[in-house]
Specification:
Largest sheet: 28 strands, mixed
Radius of gyration: 27 Å
Distance between the termini: 82 Å
Structural class: mainly beta
Number of strands: 62
Strand content: 35-45%
Number of helices: 7
Helix content: under 10%
Shape: globular
Length: 676
């Protein structure tokens, strides 16, 4: 017989052998009690705050356990109290433990800004570093050092050495960032040498490469910023207007992970909030490869099946919210609210392809709100799927990230693949990029992944820095992907882009208002690259229909045996510009409509007004008698995209992350300095 515990109670339950009540402060004892109980068993998490002082580690002995709560919060943070006014309008608080280290702070539920320079926008790298600038740096200088402007260099030089060791320089590398610690400075050359080695070279991917600096006392000069004085064990904060620090709720993180699950089966979490998790950048810096896949998660699952999260919230994290590492199957994340994330929402898989037995499969992310991510790791995505089979992302609202919405596949080229049959259906994907990074998409298919379906999604407001703010993006050998019934509009670049791939089908979509073009293709190949069928395309006349260079749209003159007559199929599409005038050329200066049709493309397509309800207000419903119908276009219900319609409160919560009045002013490339 189990002995009664002081803070845990056994209750009868018709669905479980027992209900064990978890009260704050008795986590370890309750886990042990649940392990000994007949299965299945339920842990009822009492309402209130449950501080986590170390990650909850679950394994095989914890299988067939449900963790159930209503208003329960597992917090990996700790409150900071005793705020007092200080000089210069600052407020300060003394830490209860001087050794406590953190690089995130939340005030009244808002992620405060770690002291940074500049307060908005970026500094710019001014040039590369030659051999001899740093005595022992003679090779690969562009992976280790760079030159900066006079004022930011002097700011770094003025920082005391002990404080300078904790300064973080975040440097943009097109689609990722390098987050660098400083090894040494060279005053004669205004040069910075970083600790370790960058993943990508500096001074290569973009002119006037951008960076910002943070985590030093002198940068604490704007309302909403904070700084931890490690020597004194004090937190300094400059309040926002009207912010009362005598009443403020201030929390800093202590523990990096909420949960670590390994070799378990049939564990369910429902109705629990996970909040305030730690992340400290490594002493050698952090250099991402793509999609923040070098970053871990606050909840990690490995070699497990039947792991489910339902009606949970994961917020205020330093890492990704959830990571299904290799060896996971038959699991789900359903109706969960993932927000204010240091990384991304859900990461499924790992970057290195696993052996077949450990390929993740049948993992579903459904009816989730995944918003406001990439706060520490800007290249993070809403959902990433790497080397997966039969996984799905459906009915999610994904918005306000600095990179891609959903990234899937993770192969480069046409080689052997474990990735296949990914379903991306009825998601609302919006307000991505914010012109921080380049080479992104609302949906980004990376490499060969047969049987992938991208259907019924509403994708809009994608803004890249220099290039690549696409809606639907097939990259690096994407193949056998069906993209249909997607509404894509207001993208910085084309609504659809294929770098290279084969036998992809793009049909029955609406593409509108690509800023640089509407359709883009690169790397021409003598194979059937994609079919573009029954789509409606509408754009402003300032932009062309096609992008990618004249060569990318030409057929091969001498196809070999087995090659198709044409590598592109365009058929039964409806085109329209907002001024009602058919452009003379399809690219900016080349390929007339007659030349295009002479290739056998769009011979039955039309240039005509689709008769949308209100194009200016982005109401893309078709009025009766639309010429699209005669071309075989089949309307669908746009309202299916996003979280499910059955719960009005859930939809209202998702809608709170739809309104960005600063989009037009902020989501555009930061101006480069004038040329010398």
């Amino acid at each position: 017989m189990l002995r009664p515990l002081l803070l845990a109670t056994l209750l009868a339950s018709p669905a479980f052998s027992a209900d064990i009540v978890l009260k704050p402060g008795n986590l370890t004892a309750v886990i042990e009690q649940a392990r000994k109980a007949p299965k299945p068993v339920r842990i009822v998490v009492e309402d209130g705050l449950h501080p986590i002082t170390h990650p909850i580690e679950l394994g095989a002995a914890d299988s067939q356990t449900t963790w159930s709560g209503r208003n329960a919060v597992f917090s990996a943070g700790r409150p900071i109290t005793g705020w007092q006014p200080a000089e210069g309008g600052l407020w300060k608080a003394t830490l209860p433990d001087k050794a406590w280290r953190f690089e995130q702070l939340w005030i009244n539920g808002r992620r405060a800004t770690l002291a940074r320079s500049p307060n908005k926008g970026y500094h710019h790298i001014t040039g590369a570093v030659d051999a001899g600038v740093f005595a022992d740096l003679t090779t690969d200088m562009n992976f280790h050092a760079f030159r900066i402007g006079k004022e930011p260099f002097e700011a770094l030089q003025a920082i005391p050495q002990a404080e300078r060791d904790n300064v973080l320089l975040t440097v943009t590398h097109a689609w990722v960032v390098g987050q660098c610690r400083i090894q040494e400075l060279s005053a004669p050359h205004a040069a910075v040498r970083i600790k370790g080695r960058a993943r990508y070279p500096f001074v290569e991917f973009e002119p006037h490469q951008r960076y910002w600096m943070e985590n030093f006392r002198a940068a604490l000069d704007a309302p909403g910023e904070w700084f931890l004085d490690k020597a004194k064990g004090e937190v300094l904060y400059l309040p926002l207007p009207g912010e009362d620090m005598t009443r403020a709720e201030v929390v800093a993180p202590v523990v990096e992970k909420f949960l670590v699950i390994q070799r378990a089966a049939d564990i369910r979490f429902e109705g629990i909030r996970f909040e305030h998790s730690q992340h400290l950048y490594p002493a050698e810096g952090l250099h991402d490869t793509q999609a923040a896949t070098t970053t871990a998660a606050a909840i990690e699952i490995e070699n497990s099946r039947g792991i489910h999260f339902a009606n949970c919230s994961i917020a205020h994290t330093g890492l990704h919210a959830l990571w299904f590492k290799n060896g996971c199957s038959d699991s789900s994340v359903t109706r969960c609210h993932l927000h204010d994330l240091g990384g991304g929402g859900v990461y499924i898989g790992e970057t290195a392809r696993p052996e077949d037995a450990r390929v993740n499969q049948h993992i579903r992310v459904d009816d989730c709100i995944i918003q406001h991510g990439g706060r520490l790791h800007p290249s993070a995505c809403g959902v990433v799927l790497t080397h997966t089979r039969n996984c799905a992302v459906t009915h999610c609202d994904i918005g306000d990230f600095y990179y891609t919405g959903i990234s899937a596949g993770w192969n480069w080229g046409y080689g052997d693949t474990a990735s296949r049959e990914t379903l991306v259906e009825n998601n609302h994907i919006h307000h991505l990029g914010w012109a921080y990074l380049s080479d992104m998409g609302g949906y980004y298919g990376l490499g060969t992944s047969p049987g992938t379906i991208v259907r019924g999604n509403h994708i809009h407001h994608i803004a890249s820095h220099r290039y690549g703010g696409w809606g639907l993006y097939n990259d690096e050998g994407a193949c056998d992907t069906l993209m249909e019934n997607n509404l894509v509009h207001d993208t910085w670049n084309a609504g659809f882009h294929q770098h290279y791939g084969y036998f992809n089908t793009v049909r029955n979509n609406i593409f509108a208002f690509g800023r640089s073009a509407q359709i883009q293709a690169t790397r021409n190949e003598p194979r059937l690259r994609f079919r573009y069928l029954n789509n409606i395309v509408v754009w402003d006349p300032a932009a062309p229909l096609l992008d990618g260079g004249d060569w990318n749209w030409k057929p091969f003159d001498r196809p070999e045996r087995g090659d198709p007559k044409d590598s592109l199929i365009f058929r039964d599409n409806l085109y329209w510009t907002t001024d009602g005038k058919q452009p003379a050329t399809l690219t900016k200066s080349q390929i007339t409509w007659d030349e295009w049709r002479g290739l056998g493309r769009d011979t039955a397509s039309r240039f005509a007004d689709p008769l949308f309800e209100d194009l200016a207000k982005r109401d893309f419903r078709l009025k009766p008698g639309s010429p699209a119908e005669a071309l075989g276009f089949k309307p669908w219900d746009f309202g299916l995209a996003g979280v499910r319609q059955s719960d009005s409160q859930w939809r209202e919560l998702a809608a709170r992350g739809h309104d960005y009045p600063n989009w037009e002013s902020d989501a555009k490339p930061w101006p480069a300095p004038d040329a010398p």
